[in-house]
């Protein structure tokens, strides 16, 4: 479970396990990401986020070490008070890390809201997201702070996007320190 602020996501990882013949990949593990909303059935928005999450996870999971298997990551939204995609990215990385899957690098999600006056807010609330001119979410790798995924909603200039990316890369240091502290606490018991 990951709860930054009032947004909360529960992550469960299953596998590597035997894959169905129709989903089996001969050279790597088949990764499936399921995003479950707080209430109701998944819609278009959840499917879109599932695809972004799957592509980000596939970029770091060393699936070639587990060919012909299936890995399923289930993310259950418990509450959404803003910055949901970045919370899902962070919960996914923590689940992959906790399960002991081989990863090329860790990653984290950071959401930036670009206010109408041009100021950048990190980890915006739902209300701040509604008032924002643009919302940018980045998945940043721990190695060299490379961008694995970028998702934008709204309009912004190239310069503003670069400023948001720089702020997200700085914020990633705090998230990676949180990962280290969490793993240290978990395995020092």
Output the CATH homologous superfamily: GHMP Kinase, N-terminal domain
What order do the helices and strands follow? EEHEHEEHEEH
Spatial order of strands in the largest sheet: 5-4-6-7
Q: Any idea what the CATH architecture is? A: 2-Layer Sandwich
Considering the chains and any ligands shown, give keywords for the structure:
189 residues, alpha+beta, Ribosomal Protein S5, domain 2, 4 helices, phosphoprotein, Exosome complex component RRP46, nucleus, rRNA processing
What can you tell me about this protein's structure?
- The protein is of the alpha+beta class and 189 residues long.
- The protein is globular and about 50 Å long.
- It has one domain (8-187): Ribosomal Protein S5, domain 2 (2-Layer Sandwich).
- A hairpin with a 5-residue loop joins strand 6 (134-141) and strand 7 (147-154).
- 34% of the residues are buried.
- A four-stranded antiparallel sheet has the order 5-4-6-7, with helices on both faces. Strands 1-3-2 form a three-stranded mixed sheet.
- It starts with 7 loop residues before the first strand and ends with a helix.
- Helix content is 37%, strand content 30%.
- The longest helix has 30 residues, at 158-187.
- The chain is built from four helices and seven strands.
């Amino acid at each position: 479970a990951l709860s930054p602020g009032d947004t909360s996501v529960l992550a469960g990882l299953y596998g590597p396990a035997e894959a169905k013949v129709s989903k089996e990949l001969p050279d790597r593990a088949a990764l499936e990401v399921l995003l479950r909303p707080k209430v109701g059935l998944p819609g278009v928005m959840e499917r879109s986020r599932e695809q972004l999450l799957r592509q980000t996870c596939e970029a770091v999971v060393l699936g070639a070490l587990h060919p012909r298997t299936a890995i399923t990551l289930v993310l259950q939204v418990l509450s959404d008070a803003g910055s949901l995609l970045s919370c899902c990215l962070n919960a996914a990385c923590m689940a992959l890390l906790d399960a002991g899957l081989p990863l090329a690098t860790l990653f984290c999600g950071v959401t930036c809201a670009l206010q109408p006056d041009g100021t950048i807010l990190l980890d915006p609330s739902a209300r701040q997201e509604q008032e924002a001119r643009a919302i940018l979410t980045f998945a940043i790798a721990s190695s060299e702070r490379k961008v694995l995924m970028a998702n934008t909603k709204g309009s912004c200039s190239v310069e503003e996007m670069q400023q948001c990316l720089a702020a997200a890369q700085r914020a990633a240091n705090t998230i990676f320190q949180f990962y280290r502290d969490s793993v240290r606490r978990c395995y020092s018991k």
